[in-house]
Write a structure and sequence with these properties.
single chain; alpha/beta; Rossmann fold; seven-stranded parallel β-sheet; 11 helices; 9 strands; 41% helix; 16% strand; globular; binds NADP nicotinamide-adenine-dinucleotide phosphate
Length: 280
Amino acid sequence: MIGVTGSTGQLGSRIVARLAGVPLRLIVRDPGRAPSVPGASVAQAAYGEHAALLNALDGVDVLMLLSATESADRVALHKATVDAAVAAGVRRIVYTSFVGASPGATFTFARDHWHTEQHIRSTGVEFTFLRDNLYLDFVSGGVGEDGTIRGPAGDGRVAAVSRDDVAAVAATVLRSASPGAGSDEHAGATYDLTGPRAFTLSEAAAVLTDVWGRKVRYEPETLDEAFRSRESYGAPAWEVAGWVTSYAAIASGELSQVSTAVRDITGVEPTGFEEYVRAQ
Ligand SMILES: NC(=O)c1ccc[n+]([C@@H]2O[C@H](COP(=O)([O-])OP(=O)(O)OC[C@H]3O[C@@H](n4cnc5c(N)ncnc54)[C@H](OP(=O)(O)O)[C@@H]3O)[C@@H](O)[C@H]2O)c1
């Protein structure tokens, strides 16, 4: 049985839709919002709820662990969820991490992923890490009402990836990890999941101008300007830092590496930015 967390969300729903017919356990906070998938049972548990997770994970062999919504205690929630999975007898954890996950990553949220990866490794459980680049909608979603993308991304490049491509990889990896699936070359692997090319935000603005038929421009900010412009939202400091450093990570070049993993694993070329925007 494959257990999947986060199936009420944008990525998780795409993953479970690709696993129809496979014995599945959807582990959700609100069963009333669980997607309807043939072959799936539903169990209620939030990350970090040990007893509920033990119950929800009963009989689960392979767990698709989606990273939680960003919060100040996200790493603790991830660690507690991993511990519950190990205690429940889960053999493999497939975890959605982030490219360049490291304790000193420019993108502060990527540090959470490194700490989670390290914890998973420390338990000795089998793992596969899917290190996603930024999702493609990060770019189009960052356009303000005045048609301007503002952020401290300099002229750096980002090899953003679509959620559909990440979901296709995840479903392939999960199927191959199931008992009886034959060879499983994904055990112990870490994959960078990216789009087909890395682009600057100026290039993205040009694509959006063309496809949307209205002027979109990119206006680079300094780090100081970026923090100040987001002060008025009233968000906690850790969250503002995450927003700002997602752009700073583009400037640093840490998100520019293009990988062949999507094509290698699924046999299909990943979706590019323009193709993605035209399909919306
Ligand atoms: N690479 C990127 O650009 C990027 C962008 C955004 C997010 N992410 C990360 O990737 C993850 C998946 O992305 P997404 O687009 O699918 O996000 P999403 O649509 O917000 O979905 C998040 C899913 O995780 C569940 N979840 C979050 N916190 C949880 C908790 N504490 N306990 C149990 N379930 C929890 C949510 O459940 P509910 O429905 O109950 O809330 C939802 O099903 C995100 O959670 C985030 O960590 C990456």
